[in-house]
Amino acid sequence: MRIVLVGPPGAGKGTQAVRLAKELKIPHISTGDLFRANISRKTELGKLAKSYMDAGNLVPDEVTIAMAKDRMEQEDAVNGFLLDGFPRNVAQAEALDELLKTEKIKLDAVLDLEVPEEEVVKRIAGRRLCRNKAEHVFHVTYTPPKAEGVCDVCGGELYQRDDDSEDTVRTRLEVYHTQTEPIIDYYKAQGLVATISALGAVDEVTKRALDALKRDGDEEK
């Protein structure tokens, strides 16, 4: 299957992408991984992307698209892939369509992870990280530490990242609504969108997504 995963920050896209890709036996292709891989391998695209990033500028769509094209042409993606973080806007979605048309393949589904805005703010703004070990993550509501501000695991100080503040989260949401959300209508016009509630346990969300993909597959038959 060839799938695009869409959703606002805090919807759990990264977690669901890994789980779905494993279940469907297809590679998980994320924009962040593409940038890191190309920059670490010092590919021409990686050098180009780094030059924009080092200057504090956004990486142009054509560079992101070229990286995605290169990754989708690798052997493990021949029979399918799950795209996470790409396309990020309608221009990228149109470019992806052209690319797939050239390869004589098409998307099977676009999974839209839906979360109420206030829940997104609650999820992200409530997150606390340990200064000693970044992988020690707590949440003031869902997984609070035993002692406020203290890591249960190592006793380190817990803190809130600057980009997890409520104001920053709301700004990120506005960017999502303005730039990325329009691709949902773009793909709805093609009959590809399955909207999934991303509320509840991780396993429940994964099951909803797999059930939606199965329904879409059955309907195509």
Automatic annotation (TrEMBL):
Binding site for AMP: T31, R36, N57, L58, V59, G85, F86, P87, R88, Q92, R161, R172
Pathway stated in the Swiss-Prot or TrEMBL entry: Purine metabolism; AMP biosynthesis via salvage pathway; AMP from ADP: step 1/1
Region (NMP) residue spans: 30-59
Residues annotated to bind ATP: G10, A11, G12, K13, G14, T15, R127, V137, F138, G200
InterPro entries tied to this protein: Adenyl_kin_sub (IPR006259), Adenylat/UMP-CMP_kin (IPR000850), Adenylat_kinase_CS (IPR033690), Adenylate_kinase_lid-dom (IPR007862), Guanylate_kin-like_dom (IPR008144), P-loop_NTPase (IPR027417)
Domain Guanylate kinase-like: 1-214
Signal peptide: none
Alphabetical UniProt keywords: ATP-binding, Cytoplasm, Kinase, Nucleotide biosynthesis, Nucleotide-binding, Transferase
EC number: 2.7.4.3
Listed GO biological process terms: AMP salvage
Catalytic activity: AMP + ATP = 2 ADP
Transmembrane segments: none
Gene Ontology cellular component list: cytoplasm
Location of the protein in the cell: Cytoplasm
Molecular function terms, GO-annotated: AMP kinase activity; ATP binding
Main localization of the protein described in the UniProt heading: cytoplasm
Domain notes: Consists of three domains, a large central CORE domain and two small peripheral domains, NMPbind and LID, which undergo movements during catalysis. The LID domain closes over the site of phosphoryl transfer upon ATP binding. Assembling and dissambling the active center during each catalytic cycle provides an effective means to prevent ATP hydrolysis.
Subunit structure, as described in the record: Monomer.
Summary of the function given for this chain in its UniProt record: Catalyzes the reversible transfer of the terminal phosphate group between ATP and AMP. Plays an important role in cellular energy homeostasis and in adenine nucleotide metabolism.
Family of the protein in this entry: Belongs to the adenylate kinase family.
Name under which the protein is recorded: Adenylate kinase
Organism of provenance: Streptomyces fuscichromogenes
